Amino acid sequence: MSPSTDYAVGFETELTERHARYRVDRASLPLRGDEDVVGLRRHVRERALAIGLSLVDQTKLITAASELGRNSIKYGGGGMVYLDKLVDGLRQGVGLIFVDAGPGIPDLALALRDGYTTGGGLGLGLGGSKRLVDEFDIDTRVGEGTAIAVVKWKR
Amino acid sequence: MERIPILRMGDLLLVTIQVDMHDRLAMTLQDDLTERIVSDGAKGVLIDISALDLVDSFIGRMISNTAAMARVLDAKTVVVGMQPAVAITLVELGLTLHGVKTALNVEKGMALLGKNLN
Questions:
Q1: Is B2 on the interface with A (CB under 8 A)?
Q2: Tens digit of pLDDT for each residue in A72-101?
């Protein structure tokens, strides 16, 4: 992965700068197919290890990344993800921002509810991912796209 | 095409998942296992996930579906070796692997399937 590679997605959102003041490093990855989710999990694991996240927190973050990356591909028609290293004083974290230029989420409250799915899945991706991370923000506009920013801080 | 190997031991099918599976690979495994239950006349399926450091909703669903398909084909499924961090994450995610029998290791899984290794 080359950090300078740009997989920019045509959805303008301020969410990509959500953690800009804590950010010390950024990389990006494309999200186009199944294999990209595997790559994403590997890159997230490396970053989680680098800041010394506990095994449980690593697993939670990688699982959330897997769910959200799959959503971008399956529902958003593909997109990209930013992987950010965050430093806030003595606290370190991993930030992930998923961006797609898909159809957007018309009813966010409904989409976050467990068991709700439009894609034949289990409907746990969005609500479940939210429970696995420390910060979870969404910017979605119907007909424009969806961006989801999550952070896991080292305890 | 990339595939997860399925081993046969008597009337059991054994699978050890040792790679980070992408979604299609997980679906292929589900289909392969279901076909092998019928073609081999298997009575039990043991899936070892001790090498997996992640079970997300897709893989969880594949495991649940495999167990359900095995059940209607008269075979039992036991999932063994789940790592503690994976179990914690799975439950927090909201997945309970309903209807799937689990055991801590292969030996205990075999016992659940009515096979004594000694």
A1: no
A2: 999 999 999 999 999 999 999 999 999 999
Say how many domains are in chain B.
1
Q: Could you tell me the residue range of the domain that residue A74 belongs to?
A: 23-153
Cβ contact B61–A56 (<8 Å): no
What is the ipTM for the molecules in this complex? 0.92
CA separation for the pair A80, A147 (Å, rounded): 10
For residue B69, give the CATH number of its domain. Answer: 3.30.750.24
Look at residues A103, A20, A42, A61 and name the one whose alpha carbon lies nearest to residue B89.
Answer: A61
Look at B24 and A34 and tell me if their CB atoms are within 8 Å: yes
Give me the residue from B22, B54, B83 closest to A35, CB to CB.
B22
Cβ distance A62 to B94 less than 8 Å, yes or no, reads no
Report how far Cα B7 is from the mean position of its chain's Cα atoms: 12
